[in-house]
Amino acid sequence: MSNNYEQIKKRRTFAIISHPDAGKTTLTEKFLLYGGAINQAGSVKGKATSKHAVSDWMEIEKQRGISVTSSVLQFNYDDCCINILDTPGHQDFSEDTYRTLMAADSAVMVIDASKGVEAQTRKLFKVCVLRNIPIFTFINKMDRDANDPFDLLDEIEKELGIKTCPINWPIGSGKEFKGVYDRNTNHITTFKAISTGGSKEAASTEVDLKDDSLKAMLGESFHEKLLEDIELLDGASAEFDMEEVSKGKLSPVFFGSALTNFGVENFLQHFLTMTTSPLPRNSSVGKIDPFDEDFSAFVFKIQANMNKAHRDRIAFMRICSGKFEAGMEVLHVQGGKKMKLSQPQQLMAQERKIIDEAYAGDIIGVFDPGIFSIGDTITNSNKKFLFEGIPTFAPEHFARVRQIDTMKRKQFMKGITQIAQEGAIQIFQEFNSGMEEIIVGAVGVLQFDVLKYRLENEYGCDIRMESLPYEHIRWIENENYDMNDLKTISDLKKIKDMKGNPLLLFANVWSIKTLLDRNEGLKLSEFGKNM
Ligand code: G4P
């Protein structure tokens, strides 16, 4: 259908990733300003306004100054319809970031020029590389004193193991930030900070590299340094290769300043030419083409209680093919049931709005009565298929959780189960006892804080948490294995998952080896049977 074709062709769906405070929110806000989706800076985070903010719905986020949830924003720019998937800015939530990346076709990595790849972000950015999607780097805050740009590129290459190709190049930084040089056009866009009614902006002019006035404009030493840098870059940096970019092996790098809106539009324009419309997705029957007539989507995120006023639960799905129309009947493949998706919605800046239609590449949130799981496939196609699953990360931190008020057993179990279904934590039980105690596994320790906070605030259950000294989890792969046969060792804990499958927790990798040596034929796996 030609109408679908046009709509899908113009979709671009990307995730935005950064260390807290690197400027993700500011950059997103500038994008939205270009798209006309908002008309006031500060609307995204709601810092400048008292309105409820989209990417800041949980008190804990404010307390910690990090974003632990992700949201989706859509805007139009230059004949493209762009979906931005926000991600949590802390590596303790890197599994959540990975799931969000599954729904994206490319990623934008925001780096603070004075900090480079920060310890907390390493894991987060590495997750990005795992997905093999195009990664674009925006090195932000050039209006502040920055690290040497060559060192920054070096760091990205070493830390993340991908090559970099600067598209533009900074001239100075901080108070001496003169502008950027565009390596394609040989033009220099000069930077001059101006203050307009409290907001910071940059004024810029374009000059050709060969322009006689350039030396006077930049000053002799900056001019000389620029010419040196250009020579060095042409000799040393990786050549631009679109093929490598599309495989996520080469990251185009841009320097700019989101706050002063310098280099943002230029970045957006390049980004749109270097990215493609939605790509085919793997499924159990081969690749599903986004331009297929049939609608299909998969769930990549479930989030409960986004709005305290009504305790809702939203399943976010990425549309992989065709067109979604409100009221259409779809098959929830895993549940084996036909259904209508209720209250389909999208986020536009700070508004949630009910939608009538959406296309491949878009993300929609639907009301979830508790039936969806992460990775589920939804389609109206006659061929029954499943999209490729979303891997679960093995938890590395474990804690025993007890509710303080035993009368609140029901709320406690409901809360902890729902939070586990969202994929924020994994829950287990002691091997030889009932459900009195729950053992929680998490990829990052901050997830425990979120769990405690949410159980108290959303489910009214105070809990006591005791951390356990284990770091590795293994499922037993042998069929019908009798745990009593296990020749055990110290530093080992026997547990089971909520389906009763036996599992082992280890304090270190050596104890895993010792156990395997002692128990011939024992097969262990890092991943659960249902994953
Ligand atoms: P995040 O979402 O990645 O956590 O970062 P966010 O955009 O909230 O930016 C973090 C801080 O860095 C903010 O300052 C923001 O104004 C500032 N910032 C972002 N981009 C730039 C830039 O290009 N140059 C400079 N100099 N600063 C930048 P804040 O003081 O924490 O908050 P606010 O009160 O100014 O909003």
From TrEMBL:
Annotated GO CC locations: cytosol
Classification via Pfam families: EF-G_D2, GTP_EFTU, RF3_C
NCBIfam families hit by this protein: prfC (TIGR00503), PRK00741.1 (NF001964), small_GTP (TIGR00231)
Native organism: Anaeromicropila herbilytica
Protein name (database record): Peptide chain release factor 3
Gene assigned in the entry: prfC
UniProt function note: Increases the formation of ribosomal termination complexes and stimulates activities of RF-1 and RF-2. It binds guanine nucleotides and has strong preference for UGA stop codons. It may interact directly with the ribosome. The stimulation of RF-1 and RF-2 is significantly reduced by GTP and GDP, but not by GMP.
Similarity field: Belongs to the TRAFAC class translation factor GTPase superfamily. Classic translation factor GTPase family. PrfC subfamily.
Location in the cell: Cytoplasm
